[in-house]
Amino acid sequence: MKSVIIMHADSPLFFQLAGELNLFLQHSPDLKQAELWLFYYQDKPSALPAINLDIGRIELIKANSRYLPEAFLQQLQQLQQQRNVELLLFNGDNLGGELATRLAYRLQGSSCLSVEKVALNDRQLTVDKAAYGNNLNAIFTLKNAPYCLSIARRAA
């Protein structure tokens, strides 16, 4: 499954969010390779986070604004049309959740927020996430690609 990780280098939590992503990847062994689409506003990032995954390609994307989701969405739609990615992973912060939801709607795909684990089965994506105030673990099968997911926030 063609996958991409989408991050925002100008976030003050950039490296913390990368640590949370690594924890997510430890619990999702089916994800073996992905591209990294890294947004930045003014200056290209001077350092990249360590990600425990085979990153096949890094795309640095100059954002039109520091924090305007609409601008990010337009650029993501264009990239999606060019690359036809099936799984788009966003950080668990507010921006990541908003982008995952709105992009899935625009692409007529599926979204799920605060995902703790993913599994690929017969070209379907199964996600695990906490439900009912973290009292239950819910498992959902997403059927419409592309899948836009935000990962669960954890101490990293």
Structural summary, described in words:
This protein has 156 residues and is of the alpha/beta class. The chain is built from three helices and eight strands; from the N terminus they run βαββαβαββββ. The protein has helices spanning 14-26, 69-83, 94-107; strands spanning 3-8, 33-40, 54-62, 87-90, 110-121, 124-131, 136-142, 147-151. An eight-stranded mixed beta sheet has the order 3-2-1-4-8-5-6-7, with helices on both faces. The longest helix has 15 residues, at 69-83.
Please sum up the structure shown.
This protein has helices spanning 14-26, 69-83, 94-107, and strands at residues 3-8, 33-40, 54-62, 87-90, 110-121, 124-131, 136-142, 147-151. By secondary structure, it is an alpha/beta fold.
**What percent strand?**
35-45%
- Describe the sheet with the most strands: 8 strands, mixed
Low-confidence stretches: none
Give the spatial strand order of the biggest sheet.
3-2-1-4-8-5-6-7
Order of helices and strands, N to C? EHEEHEHEEEE
How many β-strands, per DSSP? 8
Task: Give the helix/strand layout.
Blueprint lengths: L2 E6 L5 H13 L6 E8 L13 E9 L6 H15 L3 E4 L3 H14 L2 E12 L2 E8 L4 E7 L4 E5 L5
Helix pairs in contact: 2-3
What labels describe this entry?
alpha/beta, eight-stranded mixed beta sheet
